[in-house]
Request: fold
Amino acid sequence: KHPYICWCTPQRSQMRSMTHVLSLTDYRSRKTRNKRSMRSSSNSVGLCLIPLHSAAQTFMPICHLGSVLHKKMKTLKYLLQLLSNYCNLSLSPTSLSPSYIDLTECPYMWPYCSQPIYYGGMPTIVNVTILNGMGVTGRIVDKPIWQPYLPQNGDHIDVAISYSPVLWPWAGYLAVSISVAKKAASWEGIAQGHVMVTVASPAENDSTVGGELTSTVKLPIKVKIVPTPPRSKRVLWDQYHNLRYPPGYFPRDNLRMKNDPLDWNGDHIHTNFRDMYQHLRSMGYFVEVLGAPITCFDASQYGTLLMVDSEEEYFPEEITKLKRDIDNGLSLIIFSDWYNTSVMRKVKFYDENTRQWWMPDTGGANIPALNDLISVWGMAFSDGLYEGDFTLADHDSKALKLKMILKHFLFSRSVSLEVLKQETAVVEGVPILGLYQTPSNGGGRIALYGDSNCIDDSHRQKDCFWLLDALLQYTSYSMTLPSLSHSHSRVAPPTGTEHPLPQRLEGNHLYRYSKVLEAHLGDPKPRPLPACPHLSWAKPQPVNETAPSNLWKHQKLLSVDLDKVALPNVRAYRPQVRPLSPGESGAWDVPGGIMPGRYNQEVGQTIPVFAFLGAMVVLSFFVVQLTKAKTKPKRRKPRIKRPTYLQQQQTTGKNPTV
Reply:
């Protein structure tokens, strides 16, 4: 009844993981996309439905995100049992997925459980799906109610709720934003509460006219709060300026990977930068995600702004604010990537679906936009593409697609140059890393590096987390490692006149997918600066009672013992042949609902007639073919007269001489 499914992997472990709800269309596209991975997977994988009734939900083993489909027979048994339970259930017809929010439970709530929340941090947003089993249409009565549990310190958190007023078809959304109240800025502990949602749907046809069916469901919330960490330990990841495929053509960051031409991972700390994120958490840093323009965060709360592989343009207001923030103590780390208009023209391809040539809208990173951002300090990246290995502080790293940093103190290495004609050459003194301290009193620091593949999980060959640690030590504490400060590779910055700045590709269509640019008479220009997100916090209605302990256990995905599942008797619904009684001829009983009625008895009497006529036609065909074969005269083979010379040789028995 509900077209919602998730990719699940039954495992023996008793842990749980987050499930991912997909529509049926998304499932079909993913199934086609993952055919190759299905064949190579050795895991026991199944397909499961999100439970539609909370009363029928029990514990189920781990259900990981992004698994593949396998073992269709077990999947069919599970689906049939789920649908049977759903149709036979008469309790709470409204359910939520996930049925609770516990930011302390790992791995089920990863990545939320990987970092506690604190006052002043970015709000944590959790999307919940509302499944309405009462009808295809429904609505949310009034507004969802936030009720904190006072004995469990529920008043230490603030909750903002946005939702779909109308549920159609059968489902809607509930977005819950969680933040820490000001009075808990230095408090540490667990806070709990729940959000109450009431759903109403039209009654059935046989009910009273205008009647409604209502159902109330609760969404428990449990979070861990810690005191606000110091500014030096807080890192802000810029996600707003990362563009993802689809819909535009944004090429891969590693040009060596020709089998994966598109940058489709999203460049997020929870996807292809997950290892980097977990490394920073293990080092004691608190990482937050900025999903709005640079003008929408308080820079005094953060020590470092981290920009990695940015493809988006920048608003003029963002450039001005970033300059002011760095002068006031904010530090900046940029991991850029390759950009070269000649290479961009070379990696174009013809798409058979759209029957068009796809030209990249930018390179691995948008170097012209980054140059506009850091030009106020006299810095820039060039469009040179280099490849090679270097060693700093007894660490080896592979640098791909390095761009020259044009100003301020930097480090250089000898790397090999691979030009477009597939020729290689060795180039000495290529700048790969730049560090800069702003001259203002109490100003921040800037670190620039020309490649992001060493911290990207997609095509990483050697990681450079050690380099990221060193850069964070420099930006957060103004501490430069001795291997960097006393390095023999430290050189004077090149002048800007030696290396002209790269320009944007003429005729690109970045404005079609950009949040910053818009078309204007063939020359894109910046859009008006959007307003910063504003949350309306729900008015709490405290509850002076203890949270029931079973709220966290009974609303799980449905567990089905596949060995005990009783499949319906499919043969009972197929047409069955009834034994003939005296006086009947050719009567077939067909159950009602599938093929109602009986065949006429005359049908059975006409079958021998058609069989006799068919046999006569076949016999006539063979008789005609046999008659033609007998009347046709036989052709004699022509007799070949042997040459006289050969006859004489045979009679004499002598071999001819040459």
Remarks:
- The chain has eleven helices and 27 strands.
- The chain has a mean pLDDT of 75.
- The longest helix spans residues 601-631.
